[in-house]
């Protein structure tokens, strides 16, 4: 691919976590959770700059142990609370580098809470967004048929249930279902200009199908991750 773009990779890892306290530094399979994502990023040959964005000096210190990882700033508190959206975190990083005279075509978001990425997944995502000339890319996994939104219901306060989908869209048998997918959180790639306009996913969005993953938000998720480390299977 000629004229390859400049890609800024951001690994966001804040200090606080309500579901699993201190999870980014907590040992999973003998190493800090964040290390899985750092190692995946380092393996990718097309990331121009890899930076960890954190409000925690301990996280930044561990990140500095890895060659090729930058920790150019301490994330400001207003972007480090649990309700701060990812777009603000990414935009802060983009602005920082822009002030240093560095401009990027794309931003790659790698969340430490999705630690298990297959080898070359990030490379594949970069190739796909370049080939499709998309504005954004998100890795996705197929929703099992039994959980397909076509068969999902919402419940009223008096416990009546109603289909989530419009009646004309409903199907009666599995063979008629249209495949549905969910964002698995492993890789996002977004044009920098969208980030600067406050948009995380917009324009032409491409999905890259990958294996199901674990997003670690709760203690139950952590236990699933530990089981994956022990048995090599997601249950």
What structural category characterises the helix and strand content? alpha/beta
* CATH architecture group name of the largest domain: Alpha-Beta Complex
Label the overall shape. Answer: globular
Which regions have little confidence, pLDDT < 50, spanning 5+ residues?
Answer: none
Percent range for helical residues?
Answer: 25-40%
N- and C-termini, Cα separation: 39 Å
CATH topology of the largest domain: Spore Coat Polysaccharide Biosynthesis Protein SpsA, Chain A
What is the count of structural domains?
Answer: 2
Strand order within the widest beta sheet: 5-4-1-6-10-7-11
Q: Count every beta strand, where a strand is a DSSP E run of 2 or more residues.
A: 11
The share of residues in extended strands comes to 15-25%
Cα-atom radius of gyration: 19 Å
Biggest β-sheet: count, sense, barrel? 7 strands, mixed
**CATH level-1 class of the largest domain:** Alpha Beta
The quaternary state of the protein chains shown equals single chain
What is the typical, i.e. mean, pLDDT?
89
Order of secondary-structure elements = EEEHEHEHEHEEEEHEH
Name given to the CATH homologous superfamily of the largest domain: Spore Coat Polysaccharide Biosynthesis Protein SpsA, Chain A
- Separate helix tally: 6
């Amino acid at each position: 691919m000629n004229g390859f773009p400049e890609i800024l990779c951001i690994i966001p890892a804040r200090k606080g976590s309500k579901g699993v306290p201190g999870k980014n530094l907590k040992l999973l399979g003998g190493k800090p959770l964040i290390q899985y994502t750092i190692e995946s990023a380092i393996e990718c040959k097309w990331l121009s700059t890899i930076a960890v964005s954190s409000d925690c000096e301990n996280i930044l210190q561990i990140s500095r142990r890895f060659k090729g990882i930058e920790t150019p700033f301490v994330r400001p508190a207003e972007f480090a609370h649990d309700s701060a959206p990812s777009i603000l975190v990414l935009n802060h990083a983009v602005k920082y580098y822009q002030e240093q005279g560095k401009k990027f075509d794309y931003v790659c978001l790698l969340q430490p809470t999705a630690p298990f990425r297959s080898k070359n997944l990030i490379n594949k995502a970069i190739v796909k967004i370049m080939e499709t000339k998309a504005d954004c890319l998100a890795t996705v996994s197929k929703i099992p048929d039994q959980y397909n939104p076509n068969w999902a219901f919402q419940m009223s306060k008096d416990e009546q249930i109603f289909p989530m989908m419009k009646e004309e869209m409903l199907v009666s048998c599995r063979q008629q279902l249209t495949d549905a997918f969910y964002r698995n959180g492993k890789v996002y790639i977004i044009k920098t200009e969208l980030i600067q306009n406050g948009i995380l996913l917009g324009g032409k969005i491409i999905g890259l199908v990958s294996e199901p993953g674990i997003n670690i938000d709760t203690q139950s998720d952590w236990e699933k991750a530990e089981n994956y480390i022990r048995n090599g299977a997601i249950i």
